[in-house]
Amino acid sequence: MPLRAGIVGLPNVGKSTLFNAVSNSAKAQASNYRFCTIEPNVGLVNVPDKRLDQLAELVKPERIVPTQIEIVDIAGLVRGASKGEGLGNKFLANIREVDAIIHVVRCFEDENILRDEGAINPIGDKEIIETELQLKDLEGIEKKISRLEKMLKTGDAKTKAEYAILVKCKEHLDQGKNIRSLDLSKEDKEIIADNFFLTDKPVLYVANVDEASMHSGNKFSETLIKVAKAEGNEVIVMTNAIEAQIAEFENPDDKQMFMEEYKMEEPALDRLIHSAYNLLDLSTYFTAGVQEVRAWTIHKGWKAPQAAGVIHTDFEKGFIKAEVISFEDFIKYKSEAACRENGRLRIEGKEYLVKDGDVMHFRFNV
């Protein structure tokens, strides 16, 4: 199952318009009224990868299969959501189910688009969303701490460890900070992983600007970038409405002509999808044969047997070895046979750490 990134933001900031642009399997309703999106829309999104096309050009396969991530369009959060305002717990629960957050922030002025929060204020809007997520996490932590306190007298080491970490998280949240900014070790994060804290999820910001600002940004997006950068987060500046129009074109030539009119080398959407993919700490390897050239998604740092298991669990269980060619070598020598003849095909075992772009073939025995 593809990993999921959830689009969040205040009402009428361009979330569903963005979803319409990125989704290649579903179209979200986009309208100018609060809570237009009630049930989350879900779409599978192809991850653009020019390397896949380059491999296909050499191999001439019957089909090309890109890797995908799942994008979820979640209803607009409002102030007081943590206490049930608006759609409250409903969409906070939806956020809990995603692996990363794409936070859309309004960075344009338009009196025709409804706004309850007064003057355009991207930082204020950002903080409204974060405060609601923090309050919801606090609520969950306080309940969990209360339960663990009753269990501490058993002397269970795991209970003690989780309690200590949760107390640290609570103190951090009480200061108005997100759990993801707390310096927790990998082991600490594993201990509290089953709590699925909202503010522990990685976040990517989208500054939705007006058409005139699509290339240079504006004062609103610049403010958002400055704050996000201080937090170690990325901001993609884009005009969601233009991106949605680009996505409507089925003919590549028509799409290219439209982009040239707006002086665009590539859709900002491609940058967004790549950034979301990287945010999820994902990597890509390829299989290349006459039947198909295909991209496979794995987590960075996975070893060869784990990567093989993405194709089929039997591949991981019965893993013997992996035949590996770097993408650069495959392109240079133009075929697997030529790579083999020139000593560029490597045989790797169970401890091999798969690199982004590896072209792989697995040997296994079940």
Describe this protein's structure.
The protein has 366 residues and is α/β, with parallel strands linked by helices. It is built from 14 helices and twelve strands. The protein has helices at 15-22, 50-59, 89-96, 122-151, 157-174, 186-191, 219-231, 240-248, 252-261, 268-279, 304-311, 313-317, 327-333, 336-341; strands at residues 4-8, 41-46, 63-65, 68-73, 100-107, 203-209, 235-238, 282-288, 292-299, 319-325, 346-348, 359-364. The strands form three sheets. It has a six-stranded mixed β-sheet with strand order 2-4-1-5-6-7, with helices on both faces. Strands 3-9-8 form a three-stranded mixed β-sheet, with helices on both faces. A three-stranded antiparallel β-sheet has the order 11-10-12. β6 (203-209), α7 and β7 (235-238) form a beta-alpha-beta unit. α1 runs parallel beside α8. The chain starts with a strand and ends with a strand.
Low confidence ranges: 24-38, 85-89
Largest sheet: 6 strands, mixed
Mean pLDDT: 88
**Radius of gyration (Å):** 23 Å
Rounded to the nearest angstrom, the distance between the terminal CA atoms is: 23 Å
Quick one: overall form?
flat
Helix/strand-derived category reads: alpha/beta
Please bin the fraction of helical residues.
40-55%
H and E order: EHEHEEHEHHHEHEHHHEEHHEHHEE
**What percent strand?**
15-25%
Number of strands: 12
Q: Which sequence of strands runs across the widest sheet?
A: 2-4-1-5-6-7
Give me the number of helical elements.
Answer: 14
